[in-house]
Design goal:
Rossmann fold; eight-stranded mixed beta sheet; 36% helix
Length: 326
């Protein structure tokens, strides 16, 4: 029995986003992921994700967290430039979700943000999860933009370079972030030089999922947090703004699912970013997670019986894994 990505052509993403709750479809897509990732033959002895070449040894149980330092930064605590990798049981290389925490660029950690729930969610869709730390703009640290973006880019580059030896299918990579982490995954996905300088390949990011942040730092409401991490120089703020990068570089190669919530203006701003990507020739969709709070749009991902965020994100990620980066 061979399953191909054509099965997922039935998925109308915009209709799915507007209807939100499509658990039967999500379960169907997840089952395709688990029995062949729409790319190869089904192995009845395997409980993991299939792949075109299943040369990696089978894993009888999930593993992690295993911590890897992804960069060298003089005078920096190694924990701040490390990632934790969680890999599900199964055979062959598995796709990977790269999770970047929030915290206003000045607090937060890869072990926070309902990490156990996110690991379980990733495992349920047949994916590994890499939770990333990055340098923070704490008092007297001297950490300012582009340090945060350079760190997340270095983590992505590390996974691209080393992932095959760790059991990962690095051409099926999704970046997921919340709040400040949403900004960071978005800027890495739209600012190609960040990743190329780090030794990575922007073309190998399949999809990006930013959950609840503004994309123009010059007009974003979190003025004090932005000033603390980026300063007030307009040129710096432009360099760090995903919308400006799209206007300068064109649409990103990765598909975007933009999560938002809150008032009418906030949702409209997220829609403007989605429209910008689509107008420039890219692919983007909006997930309106109201009535959730800023924290809930992230914390509820993977929660039992959750019907606003989880089914939409899961189906989107499955479509990304079924159509990996070229």
């Amino acid at each position: 029995m061979v399953l191909t990505a054509c099965y997922l052509d039935l998925l109308d993403m915009e209709a799915m986003v507007s209807r939100r709750s499509r658990w039967p479809l999500v379960a169907f897509i997840a089952s395709l992921m688990l029995i062949g990732a729409c790319t190869g033959s089904v192995d009845p002895e395997s409980s993991g994700v299939g792949s075109p070449t299943t040369t990696s040894p089978c894993r009888t149980s999930a593993s992690g967290p295993v911590t890897y330092q992804y960069a060298e930064r003089q005078g920096t605590d190694p924990d701040r430039i490390s990632l934790d990798l969680y890999i599900p049981a199964g055979c062959g290389p598995v796709p990977v979700v790269v999770w970047v925490h929030g915290g206003g660029w000045q607090r937060g950690d890869k072990e926070a943000g309902q990490i156990e729930r996110k690991v379980a969610w990733a495992e349920s869709i047949g994916a590994a999860l890499a939770a990333v730390n990055y340098r923070l703009s704490t008092p007297d640290s001297g950490v300012m933009w582009p340090d945060h973006g350079a760190d997340v880019a270095a983590a992505v580059a590390f996974i691209q370079q080393e992932g095959a030896s760790l059991g990962l299918d690095t051409d099926r990579m999704v970046l997921l972030g919340h709040s400040a982490g949403a900004h960071l995954v978005s800027i890495v996905g739209t600012h190609p030089s960040l990743l190329t300088v780090a030794g990575g390949d922007p073309g190998r990011i399949a999809c990006v999922i930013p959950l609840d942040f503004s994309f123009d730092l010059q007009t974003a409401p979190a003025r004090a947090l932005i000033a603390n991490a980026f300063g007030i120089d307009p040129e710096v703020l432009e360099d760090a703004s995903p919308n400006i990068q799209i206007e300068s570089n064109g649409a990103p190669g990765a598909k975007f699912l933009v999560g938002t919530r809150g008032g009418r203006i906030r949702v409209a701003e997220a829609q403007i970013f989605v429209d910008l990507i689509n107008e420039r020739g890219g692919t983007a969709a909006l997930l309106d997670a109201n009535p959730y709070t800023h924290d809930q749009i992230s914390s509820q991902l993977g929660a039992p019986e959750e019907e606003i965020v989880t089914p939409v994100v899961s189906a989107f990620v499955a479509s990304c894994f079924a159509n990996p980066a070229p």
